[in-house]
Amino acid sequence: MMSRRTRIYVAGPYTRPDPAANTNRAIEVGNRLWDAGYAPFIPHLTHLWHLVTPKPYEEWLELDIEWLRACDALLRFPGESSGADKEIVFARQNNIPVYFTEAKLFAAELARRDA
Questions:
Q1: pLDDT digits over 65-74, tens only?
Q2: Residues 88-111: what's their mean pLDDT?
Q3: DSSP secondary structure code for residue 45 in this structure
């Protein structure tokens, strides 16, 4: 039986300065996480959904929080983002570990596996 990959919520800027560029950056982060053995959740991928069926900003944040609840950790990549900052607050209030670099996430995961 395969073990479950650790689910990582990828948090970072979306709206500023450019949603498409920020989505691309989030995908790059998520791809590195996947290659390292994690299961990334990239909320930025709703970018396409929003282009097809726009929804208010708060609805997207609500959806993001629902997925964050299911994740084992949050990885916050750099850049100004009030939404990602709110996700950090939620994660901390719900005992979901928050990391600001991939290296710290990887080190924490190795320590957890060795414990």
A1: 999 999 999 9
A2: 96
A3: G
Residue 27 lies in a domain: yes
Q: CATH number, domain at 66?
A: 3.40.50.450
Q: Which residues of 50-88 are buried (b: 16+ CB within 10 A; e: fewer)?
A: eeeeeeeeeebbeebbeebeebbbbbbbeeebebbeebb
Residue 81 in any domain: the answer is: yes
Nearest to 84 by CA among 21, 14, 17: 14
> Quick check: is 2 in a domain?
no
Domain tally, the chain: 1
**Mean confidence (pLDDT) of the chain:** 94
Residue 65 belongs to domain spanning: 7-114
**Could you tell me the two tokens for 38?**
């994690």
Phi-psi map region of 79: left, alpha, beta (phi>0 left; psi -120 to 50 alpha):
left
For residue 103, how many other CB atoms are within 10 A of its CB? 9
